[in-house]
Write a structure and sequence with these properties.
By secondary structure, this protein is α/β, with parallel strands linked by helices. Helices cover 43% and strands 14% of the residues. Bound molecules: nicotinamide-adenine-dinucleotide.
C-alpha cells in the first residue's frame, strides 16, 4: 500500500476511520476519544461507567464529532465480543482499537496483595487487551489493515515501588504489543504501545480499596516524581491522546511493535527510584 518517495505527507488524520477506545469515560481514554474524533474518526466510547461515558460522547458531539457509547467490561469475554460486533454493526467496520482501560492495584508490596486483587488488575489490564484485540483482529485481517494502540505505562518498563500487579500487567502489555506486531505485520496490522509517565487523571482515586493514607502516599510519590523528571510536571491526558492519534494514523505507517514513552523524560532520569523514598 505504501511505495516510493512519499514526499510531504501531512497524514496525522484518521478521517472516516472507526476507532474503539476502551476506558474512555474518563482520563486518558476520554482525551483519546476526543482527539480521535477531532482527527476525523468515528469514535466508539466504551467503559463500565455509563454516565461518564455518555458525557464523553456528548462532549464529542458538541464539538461536531461523531461518537457513540457502548458499555463493556473489557475483562469479560461476552462483553468484549459484543463491543467489537456492535461497533462493526453500527459503523460497518473497525479500523482502530485503543486498548486503554486500566486499573491500578493499590500501594502494596506483593505479599500484602490478595490473589483476587492481583487477578483483577491482570484481568482488566492484560486480559482486556487480549480480548478486545482477539475480537477486532479478524475484522482487520479481512480488510488487510488495522491499527492497535495499547496504553501500557512507564511502570511496565521499570520496577516501580509497591505496584506488583500493575507493573506485571503493563510489562506484559508491552511484550504482547511486540509479539502481535510480529504475527500481524505481514497482514497490514500495526500494533504499538504508549507508556505514559505521571499523567494528571483520576487513576488511583477510583482504584480498588485505596485507603485515604494510601492515596495520600501515592499522591506524595506522584508529586515528588513529577518535580524530579526533566520536564518538571505531570503530563496532561491530551499529551497522550495526540500520540495515540499519531500512532493510529497513516503518519506512523512504518511503525509497529514500537513502545513509545510519553513521560516528560521520567524514565530517562537516574532520580526515578528516589521518588519512592
Ligand atoms: N494516569 C497515569 O498517570 C497513567 C500512567 C501510565 C499509564 N496509565 C494508563 O492509562 C490508562 C488510563 O488511565 P487513566 O489514568 O486515564 O485512569 P482513569 O481511572 O481516569 O480512567 C480509566 C477508565 O477505565 C475504565 N475502566 C476500568 N475498568 C474497566 C473495565 N474492566 N472495562 C472497561 N473500562 C474500565 C474506568 O471506568 C475509567 O473510566 C490505564 O491503562 C492506565 O494504566 C495511566
Amino acid at each position: 500500500m505504501v511505495s516510493g518517495d512519499m514526499g510531504v505527507r501531512g497524514m496525522t488524520r484518521i478521517d472516516g476511520k472507526t476507532a474503539v477506545v476502551t476506558g474512555s469515560a474518563n482520563g486518558i481514554g476520554r482525551a483519546m476519544a476526543r482527539a480521535f474524533a477531532a482527527a476525523g474518526g468515528n469514535v466508539v466510547v466504551s467503559d463500565v461507567l455509563v454516565e461518564d461515558g455518555e458525557r464523553t460522547v456528548r462532549e464529542i458531539a458538541e464539538s461536531g464529532g461523531t461518537a457513540v457509547f457502548i458499555a463493556a467490561d473489557v475483562s469479560d469475554v461476552a462483553q468484549a465480543e459484543h463491543l467489537i460486533a456492535n461497533t462493526v454493526e453500527r459503523f460497518g467496520g473497525i479500523d482502530i482499537l485503543a486498548n486503554n482501560a486500566g486499573i491500578g492495584g493499590g500501594q502494596l508490596r506483593l505479599h500484602e496483595v490478595s490473589a483476587e486483587d492481583f487477578d483483577r488488575v491482570i484481568d482488566v489490564n492484560l486480559r482486556g487487551t487480549f480480548l478486545c484485540s482477539k475480537f477486532a483482529i479478524p475484522h482487520f485481517l479481512a480488510r488487510g489493515d488495522g491499527r492497535i494502540v495499547n496504553t501500557a505505562s512507564t511502570y511496565g518498563l521499570i520496577g516501580a515501588p509497591k505496584a506488583p500487579a500493575y507493573c506485571a500487567s503493563k510489562g506484559a502489555i508491552i511484550n504482547l504489543t511486540r509479539q502481535l506486531a510480529v504475527d500481524y505485520g505481514p497482514d497490514g496490522i500495526r500494533v504499538n504501545a504508549i507508556c505514559p509517565g505521571y499523567i494528571d487523571t483520576g487513576l488511583g482515586r477510583r482504584g480498588p480499596r485505596l485507603t485515604t493514607e494510601e492515596f495520600a502516599a501515592a499522591t506524595a510519590i506522584r508529586e515528588k516524581a513529577a518535580g524530579m523528571q526533566p520536564l518538571g510536571r505531570q503530563g496532561l491526558p491530551a499529551e497522550i491522546a495526540d500520540v495515540a492519534v499519531f500512532l493510529a494514523s497513516d503518519a506512523a505507517s512504518f511503525m509497529t511493535g514500537s513502545i513509545v514513552t510519553v513521560d516528560g523524560g521520567c524514565v530517562t532520569t537516574f532520580n526515578y527510584g528516589e521518588a519512592s523514598n
